[in-house]
Amino acid sequence: MQDVLAELAAIWRTGATAGLGTVVRTFRSAPRQPGAAMVVAPDGSVSGSVSGGCVEGAVYESATEVVATGMPRLERYGVSDDDAFAVGLTCGGVLDIFVEPVSQRRFPHLDQVIDAIAEHRPVAIATVITHPDPDWLGRRLVLQPETVDGTLGSDRADAAVTDDARGLLAAGRSDVLTYGPDGQRRGEGMEVFVASHAPRPRMLVFGAIDFAAAVAQQGSFLGYRVTVCDARGVFATPARFPTADEVVVDWPHRYLAAQAEAGALDARTVICVLTHDAKFDVPLLEVALRLDVGYIGAMGSRRTHDDRLSRLREAGLTEAELSKLASPIGLDLGARTPEETAVSIAAEIIARRWGGRGLPLSDVGGRIHHDDDGSPLPAGQLSDHLSRY
C-alpha cells in the first residue's frame, strides 16, 4: 500500500470512498510481491499496480464493485483459473488479491499509518481477508511497537493477531496468518494479512566522489534512505549529491560506529565504500565487517583489494568477517562510467538480497523469481499451498 498511500490518503481526506486491491499472497513467478496495491479513485482514475499490467483490468472491475456494494472480497488470479488467460495472467504465477472499499468509516486509523510512514516509524496493518462471517471481512488492526488501534471482532482474535503481527513487524515481513474464527491459534477459517511498513532501508555511501553521486541516485531509485559521508567538507556537500537524503561531514569509521551504537542500522542496511584510500577504508571496514548488515562492498582494483585484505587481517579481522566483503564492488557488466558502475553495484546488491546469480536469464533454467531466502520454490510447494483453498 505504501506505493499508493499519497493517492489513497487524498481520497480518504475528502470523505470519499476508494477501491483498494492489495496483493496478499503469491505463488511461483508472480509479478508483484505481497503488499503491492492499486487504488481506484471515485473519478475512475487508477494509481499503482498489482501485477505489472496482467490483471489490472479485472481488479479495476472488482474494486468498482466493492465500492458500490460495500462488501470486500478475496480473489485469485493464475493459470490454474479458467479465466486466467482472459485476464492476461500468463506468466505462470498465482496472485491472491484482497479488494476492499476504503473510507474514513471503514479505515478510521489511516491517518496514523500515514503519519508513521512519513516519520519513518514502523507500523503494521492487520486485515481480515477470509472469515466464515462476512461482517469480519476488512476489519483491521493498526499496530505500532507500543500501540494498537482498531479491532477484528473479538478480544481473543485481537490479542492473538497483535502478538503475531508485532513479530512480523519487527522482522519487516508481510504475511498471511491463519487462525480459527475467533482467533484460535490451532484453528482454521480466519486469515489475516499483515502488511508491515518498516522504515526505508538505509544505504550508506562513503567517499564523496563522482561514483558516489551515481550510486546515491541508484540507491534512491531502489527505495533506500541514502546517506553520503566523507571527512572532506569541501567535497561532501548537498549540492553535489542532490538525490541523497543526507550528506554528512565526518570521518567514515567514526560516523558508522556512532550509527551502530545508536541502533540506526539493521540487517537491511547497505554499505558502499568508494574512497579506495587505505586511511579511510581500513578503519571503516574494521567497523563495518563486524556489523550485522545486508551488504558491504568496497571499490578498488585487484591490487587495492589484496592490500586492503592484508591490512584488515593485520587489524585482527577473521576470515569469516572478511568473507562478508564484496570487493571489488559490483557485478561484471563491463561498466566504465560512474553511472554504469552504479548500475553494476545496484545489481549486486539486488542479487545478494534475493539470492540471484547475476547471470542472463536466457542462460539459466528454473524459476525467474526467488523466495526471500534466495532459494527456488521446492517442487510441489505450489500444489501444497493451493490444496489449502
Automatic annotation (TrEMBL):
<dbReference type="InterPro" id="IPR003777">
    <property type="entry name" value="XdhC_CoxI"/>
</dbReference>
<dbReference type="InterPro" id="IPR052698">
    <property type="entry name" value="MoCofactor_Util/Proc"/>
</dbReference>
<dbReference type="Pfam" id="PF13478">
    <property type="entry name" value="XdhC_C"/>
</dbReference>
<feature type="domain" description="XdhC- CoxI">
    <location>
        <begin position="117"/>
        <end position="180"/>
    </location>
</feature>
<dbReference type="InterPro" id="IPR027051">
    <property type="entry name" value="XdhC_Rossmann_dom"/>
</dbReference>
<feature type="domain" description="XdhC Rossmann">
    <location>
        <begin position="203"/>
        <end position="349"/>
    </location>
</feature>
<protein>
    <submittedName>
        <fullName>XshC-Cox1 family protein</fullName>
    </submittedName>
</protein>
<feature type="domain" description="XdhC- CoxI">
    <location>
        <begin position="12"/>
        <end position="78"/>
    </location>
</feature>
<dbReference type="Pfam" id="PF02625">
    <property type="entry name" value="XdhC_CoxI"/>
</dbReference>
<feature type="region of interest" description="Disordered">
    <location>
        <begin position="365"/>
        <end position="389"/>
    </location>
</feature>
